[in-house]
Amino acid sequence: MPLPLYQVDAFTTVPFQGNPAAVCVLDVPRPEAWMQAVAMEMNLSETAFLVPHAGADADYDLRWFTPRVEVDLCGHATLASAHTLWESQRVAAGKPIRFATRSGVLTTVQRDGLIEMDFPASSIDKMSPPAGLLEALGVAAEFVGKTRFDYLVQVANAGMVRALTPDFGALRKLPVRGVMVTARSDHVAHDFVSRFFGTGAGIDEDPVTGSAHCALGPYWQARLGKSELRAYQASARGGEVRVRVAGARVLLGGQAVTVMTAALAA
After folding, report:
1. Is 46 a catalytic residue?
2. Can you give the pTM of this predicted structure?
3. For labelling, which of 1, 57, 103, 261 has a CA lying 20 to 30 Å from the CA of 181?
């Protein structure tokens, strides 16, 4: 029987902007190799797989795959998954959705016209830049740190973030999922800007990276003195992320639009 498959642009309301994710809704679990093959076929930064959860602590099991690997945390594909469940009426409008994931139970709610996701905050340890990092990015850094997933590099201004043309071959040699580069915003509508290069997961540049904001939110909260922030990821597609820092949690808000529905051959 064909399986429902959706393509959703996350962190935007405009088709073909934000970050595209595929969402595959399953009745029963499928083998990991099959999910990885589907993700490779979709060739998007992430493909999400949803299965009804067997216990009372969550509503759906959720797993995320790049074309190359399974990942532990993904923001835009979680947002796309919640959007799909509400839009397809698999979950009633206004009802929270709890996802059982490799990063624990993640809850999504509809709030003030946004989908808001409750994610774990990521701590950042200051460090000297590893050999080749800044050379691969082609920038001087004001700060370099590392989360459990990624490097964080702050540069002097937002123009430098937009102008980056990294050496992706050199970045692939670094033993980490990815690199986020960030600066204070030069536009009144946003507090900070960033870009994300996910070479360790097989993605040269991710258009809008929710999970990176689990680190970027607390980082800029400490520097700007505010816990509610507006972020812009300055990729070619671009996307906005609302960030609320609440202790050990980061609440990420965004919108989404479905651009394609299909049936996947079983």
Report:
1. yes
2. 0.93
3. 103
- Structural domains in the chain? 3-118+253-264 (3.10.310.10), 125-247 (3.10.310.10)
26 burial (CB, 10 Å; 0-12 / 13-18 / 19+) is middle
Sequential pLDDT tens for the chain (266 residues): 789 999 999 999 999 999 999 999 999 999 999 999 999 999 999 999 999 999 999 999 999 999 999 999 999 999 999 999 999 999 999 999 999 999 999 999 999 999 999 999 999 999 999 999 999 999 999 999 999 889 999 999 999 999 999 999 999 998 888 999 999 999 999 999 999 999 998 899 999 999 999 999 999 999 999 999 999 999 999 999 999 999 999 999 999 999 999 999 87
Q: What is the largest CA-CA distance in the chain?
A: 54
- Give me the catalytic one of 32, 41, 46, 205: 46
The CA–CA distances, whole Å, from 178 to 25, 32, 168 equal: 28, 23, 11
| HSE-up of residue 213 (Cα within 13 Å, Cβ side) | 36
Q: Is 158 helix (H, G, I), strand (E, B) or coil?
A: helix
